[in-house]
Design goal:
Distance between the termini: 15 Å
Strand content: 25-35%
Shape: globular
Low-confidence stretches: none
Largest sheet: 5 strands, parallel
Strand order of the largest sheet: 4-1-12-13-14
Structural class: alpha/beta
Number of helices: 9
Helix content: 25-40%
Mean pLDDT: 96
Length: about 270
């Protein structure tokens, strides 16, 4: 499609694809859906969707402009092998990189760099704060993603809830936001958004309808920017009971939520 009418921007982890720990297979084993592995890391299977979802995603890619929209770095995104047509566009690093045929768009990169320099505290300041306040008892890794934002890998059961709240307030005052997703705590500049990159793609492609899905606080702006959005029954947004007029809160949790989201996307694409 050279000029598709519908742009579908979806988060990946815990929205369309799921680690073994996030599958939420609560049914009897004999009734569990068949799964397709879509990511291998260090020779081990890492992420899955159902075989039914794989078929739905293939159909979606044939009939709309499907844009994977993720907080993952480019390297982490490129490990994923989704079924269906290879996406022409992808959004990585929470909007920091707009990939066109797998290559980061330099004009978009320059815009993002300028916006961050103008509108929020530096990555260096945030990294120093994390290093000074995070306790090695529960921190396993300090990481920087694409020189754009920082995250910690933590032992969730040891993580003090008060520390996360204090970090969120500290970050808010400096133009950053904090998101807790599984075993990772993200500190991300507020100007670094998935929605800005999606708006740019809608402008470039002439899409007349934008659909979106996501499960975390970092997806809220993406959902609000879309004409219609969906969130699963798990994740930060579900825990906060977050919703908005054009957002549908789905009851499904785990990998079956990913399947439901793809059905909703396809229904809208067919109607459009």
């Amino acid at each position: 499609m050279s000029a598709p009418k519908v742009l579908v921007a979806s988060d990946l982890d815990r929205t369309l694809i799921y680690s073994a720990a996030a599958l939420a297979l609560t049914m009897p084993d004999a009734r569990a859906p068949r799964l397709l592995c879509v990511e291998v890391h260090e020779s081990k299977p890492l992420s899955y969707l159902t075989e039914t979802a794989a078929g739905l995603l293939t159909e979606l890619g044939d009939n709309a402009l499907f844009v994977p929209t993720t907080t993952r770095t480019r390297k982490q995104y490129q490990r994923i092998n989704l079924p269906g047509p290879a996406p022409k566009y992808a959004i990585c690093a929470n909007g920091g990189h707009l990939l066109v045929d797998g290559v980061s768009d330099p004009d978009w990169q320059a815009q993002v760099t300028a916006r961050l320099a103008r509108e929020c505290a530096s990555l260096t300041e945030v990294r120093e704060h994390l290093a000074a306040t995070a306790d090695p008892v529960w921190v396993r890794k300090h990481r920087v993603a694409e020189d754009l934002f920082a995250y910690l890998v933590v032992e969730r059961e040891l993580l003090p809830e008060e520390w996360v709240k204090e970090l969120a307030v500290w970050a808010e005052n400096r133009g950053w936001t904090v998101s807790l997703q599984g075993r990772k705590i993200y500190a991300v500049p507020k100007p670094l958004t998935k929605s800005a990159a999606v708006r740019e793609l809608a402008r470039r492609t002439g899409a007349v309808l934008t659909l979106a899905a996501g499960d975390s606080l970092l997806d809220a702006d993406l959902l609000l920017a879309a004409d219609r959005g969906w969130r699963p029954g798990h994740g930060e947004l579900a825990e906060a009971d977050w919703t908005a007029p054009a957002i549908t809160a789905l009851p499904e949790r785990g990998v079956l939520a990913g399947e439901r989201i793809l059905r909703e996307f396809l229904r809208e694409v067919r109607e459009a």
